[in-house]
Amino acid sequence: MNATTRKKTLAKGARDAHLRVKTIRDQHSTATHPRDLAAATLVYGHGYKAEAVMRLAGLTRSMWHNEIKPHLPVDPDPVDPNTCKPKLPDYTEQEALEVIKAQLKTITDLDRALEAAMQDRAEKVYALYEIALQEDPSRPKMVVQELTGFNLPLITRDVSKAEMNKSAPAEAGAPAPNGEWVPAAEVATRLGVTLNKFLKRVSAAGTAGPPTRRGRGRVTLFDLEPTLTWWTDNQHHWLSAAELADRWGVPAAAVRERLRAADSRSETPTCRAVDNRYFYEPESADAWWAGVQEREKAVSHGRDAHGRVTLGWLERRLSLTYEQVKYMARRWREAGDPVPSELDDRRIRWYEPGPFILRAIGRPELAGAPLEQAGLQAALAEALLAGGITTVDQLLTREELESVPGLSAQQIAEAQAFVGKLYQLAAVKEAAGGE
Predict the structure, then answer these.
(1) How confident is the model at residue 170 (pLDDT cuts 50, 70, 90)?
(2) Paired strand residues for 280
């Protein structure tokens, strides 16, 4: 291809790209109109605050006052002809939100197409400029103007843009010229957070925030990958107590109460303070909450993962009142012969159930003893032994004899009757005044 033919091809390509730019800009203007009407409907028809609606639309508050509100279509007020009311679509709240969402996507797609068309035009204009610079260094831009019909300011902008894009990758730390630029709502969706939370973090960061630029229609666009990295590096994915409550499906007050209790014991999950608010690392908080739930379940049931029990469990097991069981434990402790127990950091005392029960029924000598020693029939003792119950302690503290493998219904009934008979000794003993 000779120089003349190449110049004609480049000039035609530049004009075609410029036509695409103009077409996309017209489409852009058309797309912003429904968005602006839907935004106004939310403000005037559904009581939204203008600032909140502008955030939803990816716009600044000044856009409402300077661009949208002054240019709304109006109808004269039939009551007062000197005043006018905005002429707005009859959208429901949900319909208006859907329109904003749809138009925001359309505007973003058009912005990407516009950027690509402008880049294509700039590259072709710059190629013509380089050819003209070699042929006539005194007037290269005027040559490009003659070939394309563009005005000189446009040619100057395109040449500068092409030169900047050409040199940008060589600069240390320079951002990539062609990132994936998306609106705030799309970034929030990718992060799995509310739009309001994302925009608040960006606003608080100020100049240290993620890379942004203004798209057509004044929509703020974010360079997606750097923004995702910025979000994680700055720990913005950490969650407040209220967000943790939403994550776990429990009331926020319950989470705050347990966090305060954990703080008094220096057991809080990994956290950091930002503007007098605490934010918690999600994985650490999840592990902490699982532990809280496990402990509360153990306290509610009365038995923990180590087999230790509370006085409430012993009360139910021995068919005594809580005060009677508590009195037993205190009496033994004051006598200098307490049953094995441990007070945890939540001031809950956990007891070894076997020694306590055997002491309560007056048969402490049966601790660790084989089943026959308690007077159990040999056949039943053998069946229990085959099911994994080898001592009197295990038999007395087993909560569901039905779950013992290999036992028949008759053997289960016999074992329950035997256990119940032993437990009766505790009630008789307590009624008689104890030891």
Answers:
(1) very low
(2) 239, 271
Cβ-contact 143, 137 below 8 angstroms: no
Q: In angstroms, what CA-CA distances link 349 with 184, 219, 288, 296?
A: 52, 61, 21, 14
Instruction: Name the CA radius of gyration of the chain, rounded.
Output: 39
What's the confidence (pLDDT) of residue 253?
Answer: 92
pLDDT over threshold 80, residue 400:
no
C-alpha–C-alpha distance, residues 121 and 22, integer Å:
12
Cβ 133 vs Cβ 140: under 8 Å: yes
The candidate with the shortest Cα–Cα distance to 193, out of 255, 249, 236, 233, is 236
What is d(CA 77, CA 95) in angstroms, rounded to the nearest whole number?
Answer: 25
Q: Is the pTM of this model over 0.70?
A: no
Q: What is the mean pLDDT of residues 187-200?
A: 81
pLDDT at 23 over 90: yes
The token duo for 102 is 């749809």
Contacts of 191 (CB under 8 A, 6+ apart): 198, 228, 231, 237
SS3 435: coil
Q: Is the dihedral of CA 93, 95, 98, 104 positive or negative?
A: negative
Using CB atoms within 10 A of its CB, is residue 417 exposed (0-12), middle (13-18) or buried (19+)?
Answer: exposed
Average pLDDT over residues 71-92: 77
Q: Token pair for residue 28? A: 């852009």
Length of the chain: 435
Query: Do residues 227 and 187 lie in contact, with contact meaning Cβ atoms separated by under 8 Å?
Result: yes
User: What average pLDDT does the chain have?
Assistant: 84
**Of 222, 189, 217, residue with least CA distance to 39:** 217
| Spatial separation of the C-alpha atoms in residues 409 and 386, rounded to whole Å | 16
d(CA 79, CA 159) in angstroms, rounded, equals 58
| CA dist., res. 57 & res. 105, Å (int) | 10
Distance of CA 183 to the CA centre of its chain: 20
Can you read off the two tokens belonging to residue 278? 């605490």
Strands 74-76 and 349-351: unpaired
